[in-house]
Amino acid sequence: MNILVTGGAGYIGSHTCLEMLNENYKLVVYDNLSNSSLDALKRVEKLTGKEVKFIEGDLLNVEKLEQVFQNERFDAVIHFAGLKAVGESVEKPLEYYDNNVVGTLNLLKIMQKYNVKKIVFSSSATVYGVPEKLPLTEESPRSTTNPYGTSKLVIEYILEDLAKSDPEWKIISLRYFNPVGAHKSGEIGEDPNGIPNNLLPFISQVAVGLRDKLNIFGDDYSTKDGTGIRDYIHVVDLAKGHLAALKCMTDATEKGFIPINLGTGNGYSILEMIKAFEKASGKTIPYEVVKRREGDVAECFADTTYAYKKLGWKAKKSIEEMCADAWKWQSTNPDGYRS
Description:
- The chain is an alpha/beta fold and 339 residues long.
- The chain is globular.
- The chain has a 7-stranded parallel β-sheet with strand order 3-2-1-4-5-6-11, sandwiched between helices. A 3-stranded mixed β-sheet has the order 12-9-14. A two-stranded parallel ribbon has the order 7-10.
- Strand 5 (118-124), helix 6 and strand 6 form a beta-alpha-beta unit.
- It has a domain at 2-181 and 232-264 and 302-315: NAD(P)-binding Rossmann-like Domain (Rossmann fold, 3-Layer(aba) Sandwich), CATH 3.40.50.720.
- The chain has helices at residues 11-22, 38-48, 62-71, 86-91, 93-113, 147-165, 199-207, 235-249, 270-281, 305-311, 319-332; strands spanning 2-6, 26-31, 53-56, 76-79, 118-124, 170-176, 178-180, 214-217, 229-230, 232-234, 256-262, 268-269, 287-290, 299-300.
């Protein structure tokens, strides 16, 4: 199979490309490098001994995107490309809707034109908003608390309507919980631009001396220790979930819009993650509690029953492995891919 991977030079995209190459998929990466690095793909090539075809481009550039489809014959698309910071989305909602929603519409129109009707979409647990009941199943009510989450939910509605309009479409929407960790080699990992928006890369940068302390956004939630609880999943487990989704779509009976949670089913608090990272790294992580961040929820974790039933997939890596692999990446590459 020849797969187009939008956003394939990013954190989750690069790990998925590595797993795909190990399974002998052919792929083309289309990425604007706004929050990613070409060095990640070079390291993927080094680790796999296989070449990655890379095209620098933006989904908002319709002409360039169409050229890619004119020059290649794709069997399916994995769609990672998108802006992803909750806090930034509150400050820049129009930019998020333009990039995420309009970019996806451009991609879908061109896929339809060239009769490529299989897509794995990078969705998010943020489409569940403030959970009414835990754990979250795929049938849980959807709502959002921030523009980032709303952009993902709008795209899901678009994909649902597309699947209803044309039974040839096979669409799997993978609702990620909280990806963390890095490849065990320490060669590829999360390398955010500027101040990290996610917990573990921030902790890692504090541990390696790039930042003085961690800010904890609120310790007055109704949780076991007052800090937010999330379902953290190792990025390699997440990457393998995409391969399972691709294999699922090769089944002729699979059609329509299929949402699937990718998480571990376990919730860990921020303080628990700090302790686990301190144990893995041997470093002390200083922190300060500050006011809550707009758009955050107290607790969020997945029911992963359907992922195993539908894909035969289950997360395998522990919180200890997540922290150890994240520390190996950060300590080996203190300045990320610029090291």
